[in-house]
Amino acid sequence: MDISILIFLSSGLFLGWSLGANDAANVFGTAVGSRMIRFTTAAAICSVFLILGAVISGAGAAHGLGKLGTLNALPGAFMAAFSAAVTVYWMTKASLPVSTTQAVVGAIIGWNWFSGSITDLSALTTILATWVACPILGAIFGALLYKLTVKGITWSKLHLLRLDVYTRIGLIVAGAFGSYSLGANNIGNVMGVFVGSSPFTEFSVGNLFTVTSVQQLFFVGAVAIGVGVFTYSKKVMMMVGEGLMPLTPVAAWVVVIAQSIVLFLFSSIALEHFLASNGLPTIPLIPVSSSQAVVGAVIGIGLLKGGKGIRWGSLASIASGWVTTPIIAAFICFVSLFILQNVFNQTVYHEVRYVLNAPVMEHLEKEGIPVESLKGLDGEEVVGGVRFRDLLRSQAQLPVKQEDKVLAEAELHPMRIDGDLFRDIDLDYLTADQTDALEQLVGQRFQHRWEFYDALSSLTPDWKRKEDNKLNKPYNKHLAEQLDYVYGLFQVPEEPRTGR
After folding, report:
1. Fewer Cβ atoms within 10 A, N terminus or C terminus of the chain?
2. 49-81 as b/e: b if 16+ CB within 10 A
3. CA distance readout (Å), 71 to 110, 147, 229
């Protein structure tokens, strides 16, 4: 195993530790703060179910964050993860519940800033909108569930001792489920950037099951999260559980359930498919902050009671942490990348090149893009997304969607369909027809993603996008993920050439 891989992997372990130290409060903070469950019990249950969620259901759950930027060099990925980890650790030391996703988003933006890559403003706007919607939804669900739960308890006339037992069991079950979801949804943020460089090899346990290299990678990351839970999460748990507002045991249970519902809304593919199939607006599958959902639920219950028990000073401190976390992570990442590149001579990013040659121009014209105004860039190779976009705007004022189309189609992404790489294909992820189509292209080379897509879609409808409407949205989204998978699998390094 290359020692440099282990060194770079250490930042992911640090980020996992920071996540465990901070985010464990989201699933057990209210239970510990209300004295219904001891900290050691909560930490043990949380750690076990975090690991299970990461290994069983955590297959690359970076979700929509990949649209913000592609960290294409391991040293750069190391520094982005390290910057996010330092930020989360800083906030944890201040006993503030923040989101690891917020820190990762900030670090990615810092990497884009340093590398001259384009930050997808549409994806960023959607993510920022969920950061506003998440605590609001948490407050709504928290208030509604609390009211219904109290009415249900009053109607059932449960004895206090029996109610206490049921509440403790409910907190344990809800916390275990929340921990499983936390591991499944956040392990991609912790270790996802290292999937392509995993130092582990696949092995089988008899004829029972196979443990993939990614599962081993996620297991190591999940153990780091568990260590963070045990060693440093108690302060943040107490802040959520009693620092924001004193909670009754029943209210503590409601908070965990409300948080789980919010996370489900923003992560369920089945729900998205159901809404789209019935012609209803879909909810974006974006990683949201469990910290924000928990705090929102606590505030919702507090407002339902008249708002007198809410410690507004603590809420202001938490809100300031939400605002500053991505900003701090972006700044730390930018400065750290500069030091890593110029002091330690590490390649923190690989140049991304763009070209508007004859095949690209012809393809864009078929897509309905007016190419006459782009003739000034014909045949020229340009380094860097921001630089190419600025040159593009100097030649023509295209609508945003057309500009994005030109950027995507002009990007060089050299691929060679190598027969040996078929051993690494996940046959469960692709259909038989999709795999057969790939096999027919063995030995061929492509310079752009669209060239590869055109070749694949001409061989089987299984690689072809359907008409762009709400009903087909889930299918097209899954197809886009499959295409990204094969684009990455067969990509080959490109030799640098002279360009702007």
Report:
1. N
2. bbbbbbbeebbebbbbbbbbbbbbbbbbbbbbb
3. 11, 46, 28
CA atoms of 239 and 256, how far apart (whole Å): 15
Annotate 268-296 with b (16+ C-beta within 10 A) or e (fewer).
eeeebbebbeeeeeebbbbbbbbbbbbbb
Amino acid at 319: A
- Least confident interval from 67-76, 351-360, 396-405: 67-76
CB under 8 Å to 225, separation ≥6 — which residues?
16, 17, 19, 20, 47, 50, 51, 54, 183, 186, 187, 190
* DSSP line for 462-495: GGSPPPSSTTTHHHHHHHHHHHHHHHHHSB----
Q: What is the pLDDT of residues 101-146, one digit of tens each?
A: 889 899 999 999 999 888 888 878 888 888 889 899 999 999 999 9
Q: Which phi and psi (to 5°) does residue 411 adopt?
A: -65, 130
- Is residue 51 within 8 Å of residue 94, measured between CB atoms? no
**In angstroms, what is the C-alpha Rg of the chain?**
24
Quote the CA–CA distance of 259 and 461 in Å, as a whole number: 40
Q: What is the DSSP letter of 62?
A: T
H or E stretch at 187: helix 160-191
Q: Which of 235, 189, 296 is nearest to 21 (CA)?
A: 235
- 8 A C-beta contact, residue 437 and residue 456: yes
Q: What single DSSP character describes residue 500?
A: -
Q: Whose CA is closest to 233, among 13, 31, 17?
A: 17
| Per-residue model confidence as pLDDT tens digits over 149-162 | 999 999 988 888 89
Element (DSSP H or E) covering residue 341: helix 312-342
Element (H, E) at 382: strand 381-383
Q: How confident is the model at residue 233 (pLDDT cuts 50, 70, 90)?
A: confident
End-to-end CA distance of the chain: 38
pTM (2 decimals)?
0.80
What is the pLDDT confidence band of residue 499, given thresholds at 50, 70 and 90?
Answer: very low
Residues ≥6 apart with Cβ < 8 Å to 140: 300
Percent of the chain topping pLDDT 70:
87
Q: Are 325 and 91 in contact (CB under 8 A)?
A: yes
CB 257 within 8 A of CB 174: yes
- List the one residue out of 101, 66, 128 whose CA is nearest residue 325: 101
User: Helix %, strand %, coil % for the chain, to 5?
Assistant: 70, 5, 25
Kindly provide the residue ranges of all beta strands, DSSP E only, lying in 106-216, ordered along the sequence: 203-205, 209-211
